[in-house]
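Subject: complex prediction, re-run

Hi both,

The earlier run crashed halfway through, so I resubmitted it with identical inputs.
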Amino acid sequence: MRRFLILLSAITGTAVSSVQASSIEDWMGKVEKATQHSYQGVFVHERSGNFSSYQVWHLSKQAAVTERLLQLDGPPAESLRVNGKLECASAGFPSIPPSIFTQFDFDRLQQAYELRVLGESRVAGRRAQVIGILPRDRHRYGLEVHVDFATGVPLKQLLVSDDGSLLERFQYATFHTETPSASELQVQARCVESRDVSAGSLAEPAWRPDWVPTAFHATPLRSAASDPASSALISNYSDGLARFSIFVEAISDPSVGDARSRLGPTSVVSKRVAGDSVDYIVTVVGEIPIGTAERIALSVVPNAPTAAPEAQ
Amino acid sequence: MSREALHETLSAVMDNEADDLELRRALVASDEREVRETWARYQVARAAMHKELLMPKLDLASAVAAAIAQEETPAKVERRPVRGLARVAIAASVTVAVLAGVSLYNQDDVSSPQLAAQSGQPAIEAPQAQGPAVLAGYKAGSVETPAAEDADSNWHEERLPEYVRQHAQQSETASPLAREVGVDNR
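This time it finished cleanly. Structure:
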């Protein structure tokens, strides 16, 4: 009897997985179209023990998508996005804003991750399909996405490291597809207009990493001209899900040394590099394992055009 | 236990990566003032990056220790189920203490560069007056300015939160976990 059960489960398991494997594209397509729905709800966001809750109102009307987020704990911070562009945000709004994760570049993702339908679950009282975005190497983290059956909106996302520990959680507690009213999408006076953050060009930076993990590509830098630290920002790389930034800054203080820390999914590694006349601090910040960040930081070299042929 | 090893252990405890033995060692050592100060400094650094810290002096280490001390000691017979339970219980205490701390941190919004300066000010009295178990170890004046020791930590404490913010801005308009996707075609 027992053997029969094992056999049965093996057969159904294979059958189910073959059915599911064919539908991962369908599910990703459904996720991509999720912003076309109107909905509202409350979600929690947690990273390395920090826990916040947010209310979201999402309105899709005549090809325009308006989304208001209100932080429910601590100071009442909020943000408003129209068609994905940040229109305004309160001063206290977190620098790492929890957003509604509905955009995936499917083809791009597949270079670095294996995408799989893992099963079904229930989130915020709703039926959900669980999609695994599993890294193909150890230089990035895995993501488990619970997608709402009815709308395709991701109701829950768990970012996990390769040892299975949870790095970041995003999860709806309540979710319904009622269309938000105009007053609910109205931001308060404390919401100030977003600074003009312009997308810069992909100009040749003065420094470059000699090594980055597979499938990571440089992306245009976005920086506000008034930002003093933006001059230290050298480049930003993404694999379609994870992202890291490289900073290089001249340093005169001889006591400043190396540093490494991890804040939930974000690794920060600083390395001191000796230069001709002055030393530099190379810092890598990103949602990648700390060992990977360290390796990238160690590989950063000055981008001297004349020296390049000899170096390669 | 060497100082360096202890610092590593503290770091592991902060990252939730310490095993039971390490956690115990850290707790045993947590009576030492220097260890507690190191722990406080790590908390400040971490919290600063999250822009959430209000009271750098809140001593979480002793709060955790106090919470654990109040727990019933499991029976000495080393039966496995009991050990398992104890482990869960310790983890729960740590969570409770940390959550208690975080809820205090979140009362207001203070930008990170202010943090170092703030540590010289007297901390507010309220948590002490309430006196719940998890805050039993909270001391207003015993932990000294964490950042003033060497220039090393100063630079990192000032710059790294700014770097993290800049990094976050790179994906600001896209969602944090779908960072590559452009803003305009959303």
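Chain B has one domain: 3-169.

- K.
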